[in-house]
TrEMBL record:
It holds the Pfam family PALP. Residues 3-254 form the Tryptophan synthase beta chain-like PALP domain. It comes from Thermococcus chitonophagus. It comes from the Archaea. This is Cysteine synthase. The lineage of its organism: Archaea, Methanobacteriati, Methanobacteriota, Thermococci, Thermococcales. SUPFAM superfamilies: Tryptophan synthase beta subunit-like PLP-dependent enzymes (SSF53686). InterPro entries: Cys_Synth/Cystath_Beta-Synth, TrpB-like_PALP, TrpB-like_PALP_sf.
Length: 284
């Protein structure tokens, strides 16, 4: 039996990143980091930038997002609607060089860099809240999480969930990363050395191509009527590859509406993908 945790019901960025961003901002206020400045800068490929822009409006903060060159135009537009600045860089991916560049930009302008990639408030948001939600939601129907499949980005959510559920249930946790040569928004290869991934036990890592992630998106859209995002599609593709036994939870970090440009390109490259090629639900 499998379930999907639909993180696009979070209100600010329609993604799982609301949790980490809220946690990081609250921790910064608690430590009085915003005393003397209201500016903060962040390296982001999408959802963190949207969540930070939205919550900066709530808390009257000035935010600047530094985004990779290939970030969807829709993401940039959404961030700007919230009143934030956007700097589209020449970087293709967010790597350590990109992160250090943003740190230096923040230092130069006397701004704060919350740094989602190193800030432990990211990890603890999922260890203390997201994992417990999974536990309580399954408990309400008499189940426990035997398997969790999640993407690896900053590694905050997969590591936080893994640590809590392994401590309680010994849950098997499967990570999903882009195959070599593929770019999937929201997830990264382990060569980027995500901080928390290596501090917990992840039982298996599955490589997924961009095309396989898109196939996962199309399958869920045509079977379940949900338009999920690229990393969510990658999680579906990993599930289809390994076909785990037991009560399985798939983490869907966001929905697909901000990825329309990517969908258009992938759909054009798969014009022969018809509904007959995608498994359909049986009529009741």
């Amino acid at each position: 039996m499998s379930f999907a945790k639909l993180e696009f019901f979070n209100p600010f960025s329609r993604s799982i990143k609301d949790r980490a961003v809220y946690s990081m901002i609250m921790e910064a206020f608690r430590k009085k980091k915003f005393n003397g400045t209201r500016k903060h800068y962040e390296a982001t490929s999408g959802n963190v930038g949207i969540a930070m822009a939205a919550l900066s409006s709530v808390f009257n903060l000035e935010f600047r997002a530094y985004i990779p060159s290939n970030t969807p135009k829709a993401t940039e537009t959404i961030i700007k609607i919230f009143g934030a600045d956007v700097v589209r860089t020449d970087f293709d991916v967010i790597d350590q060089e990109f992160i250090e560049y943003v740190k230096k930009e923040a230092e130069r302008d006397k701004a704060i860099n919350l740094n989602q990639f190193e800030n432990d408030a990211n990890f603890f948001a999922h260890y203390t809240i997201t994992a417990k939600e999974i536990e309580e939601q399954l408990k309400s129907i008499g189940k426990v999480p035997e398997v969790v499949i999640a993407g690896v980005g900053t590694s905050g959510h997969i590591a936080g969930i893994a640590k809590y559920l392994k401590e309680k249930y010994g849950t098997r946790v499967i990570g999903v990363v882009p195959a070599k040569g593929s770019t999937i928004p929201g997830i990264k290869r382990l060569e980027t050395k995500p901080k928390w991934f290596f501090k917990v036990k992840i039982d298996q890592v599955v490589d997924i191509t961009e095309e396989e992630a898109f196939e996962g998106i199309v399958k869920v859209a045509r079977n379940d009527g949900l338009l999920i995002g690229m990393s969510s599609g990658a999680v579906v593709a990993a599930y289809e590859k390994i076909k785990p036994e037991g009560t399985t939870v798939l983490i869907f970090p966001d929905d697909g509406f901000k990825y329309v440009e990517i969908f258009e390109r992938l759909l054009a490259g798969a014009r022969d993908m018809t509904s007959s090629q995608i498994s359909q639900p049986q009529a009741p």
